[in-house]
Design a protein that fits this description.
Elements: E1 2-3, E2 6-10, E3 14-30, E4 33-48, E5 51-62, E6 66-78, E7 82-91
Antiparallel strand pairs: 1-2, 3-4, 4-5, 5-6, 6-7
Length: 95
């Protein structure tokens, strides 16, 4: 991991593995309207320095619009000091 104030200073390193899966096409109704969209699932697993992360996200993309909705499940741990286990979502509310 490098910091913007001094990118030559690398404090941690590691690896991330991501798997991308095309799930299919859907008609998605959200506050911004109804869209034809594709659904991509991204699973990420890795270890950087003392932290280990496992994430799964589901992302809806509409042609000509871009991302319109997403669901994210995330687990990040760094020893016993730092622990995040969360789930959340976002939708496009206006176009």
């Amino acid at each position: 991991m490098r910091y913007l104030e001094d990118i030559s200073n690398q404090r941690h390193s590691g690896t991330l593995k991501s798997d991308y899966t095309y799930v299919g096409t859907y008609e998605v109704k959200i506050p911004a309207g109804t869209f034809d969209a594709i659904l991509l699932r991204v699973k990420t697993d890795g270890k950087i320095g003392p932290a280990h992360t496992q994430n799964t996200s589901y992302n809806f993309f509409a042609p000509g619009v871009g991302p319109i909705a997403m669901i994210l499940q995330s687990k990040v741990t760094a020893f016993w000091i730092y622990n995040i286990d969360s789930a959340g979502g976002k939708v496009l509310s206006r176009r």
